[in-house]
User: What shape does this take?
Amino acid sequence: QVQLVESGGGLVQPGGSLRLSCAVSGISFRFYGLGWYRQAPGKERESVATITISDSPNYADSVKDRFTISRDNVRKTVYLQMNSLKPEDTAVYYCNAHLGISTYWGQGTQVTVSS
Assistant: This one.
C-alpha cells in the first residue's frame, strides 16, 4: 500500500519559517520524481516545487529564493524548507510522487501565515 504522510504544517507569522516533511512508503522511492503542491481556498492546486531522481529542483516563480525542496532516499522522505513566509503562502500543502503515469498524493497539511 502506497502512503505519503505529510507533517510540519501550522500557523506562522509573516517572515517566519516552516519545514514540511513527507514520509513515503510502498514504492521504490529513489525512482520517483517528487513534488510539493498547494491549494488555497477558492483556487486550483498549483505546483510549488519539484525534484527529480537526480536531485534537480524546480520552483514556482512565487517561491524562488524562499523555498528549498530536498529528498532523502535513505529515509524515503521529501522536505520543503519554507523561509520568509508570506500571507499568500497560506494553503494546504500536498506531497506528490510520480513515475510515468503513476502518481500518488498525500492527505495534505495546512500552512497558515498570519499575524
